Amino acid sequence: MPLPLSEQSIINWSAPWLAHLPSVCREVASSADLKAALNAALLHSAAPVLSGGGLPLHFIAQADLPAGAAYESHIHATGGVPTRLNLHDFFNACIWLTFPKTKAVLNARQAAQIELLGVTHERGMARDALTLFDENAAILVASDARISDALRRFDWGNALIAPRAHWDEPFHPRADARAALYGFGHALLEKLTQPRKAMCAHTWVIEVAADWFALPLHARLADLDARLAAQLAVIELNPRDFCPLPVLGVPHFDADNADETFYNDARVFRSGRLRLSQL
Known about the structure:
There is one protein chain. With 279 residues, the chain is α/β, with parallel strands linked by helices. Helices cover 39% and strands 11% of the residues. The strands form 2 sheets. Strands 4-3-5-6 form a 4-stranded mixed β-sheet. It has a two-stranded parallel sheet with strand order 1-2. Helix 4 (71-78) packs across helix 6, helix 5 packs across helix 6 (100-117) and helix 6 packs antiparallel against helix 7. It is globular. The relative contact order is 0.13.
């Protein structure tokens, strides 16, 4: 069965926060059989896409998830990703196709947490952080530490306004860029089908050398996927490790933010305090 037309119609493929998704995502969105199209896309990927348990990934109907089985545990143990015909699960599939190594690491760590603690109403700090990353993360890649440091300080002027000319343009990647944002969380991408100024991402920062931006987009994403997977495999995540970032404030993400007064809304662009570990 296809993704409902009512949901297909609200995906704006010219939105800058979708520019990094592979073109196959747009193609499968309108296919007559969404799961079959997604599985075909997996077969044609440049490298095998595996679950956190090392099994070939494939998309299955939500009804095929056994009663009582935990979602992440099932993916880890079988490679089957339960997928409903809605935007949330569609964007989840798109992120598997875009960042397969990172998704596999998240799946492995989530499954390990479930094995350790069981499925309870209280996830615990580590699983909360993993869930935040999976659902609502955006990745800030920066070769200029002044930009990422300013973001950590909630210094919107030096993160978004003063260096505007150095932010990458999503549909026209620039070799001389110093910062770019890539959406990762599938819930974030779902929310952004109806964007509002206050929508905030949990931002994860990756520092790179200046020549990283000379890479073509597919090479950037492959490198970013490998870096993220390596980090998330070993780091002890805490929900407070993320930097909040109103997505529409990213240069080139909204035409209105070309006017500096866009950032004067203190309800959206708030001041904040650093954790000691971020100083």
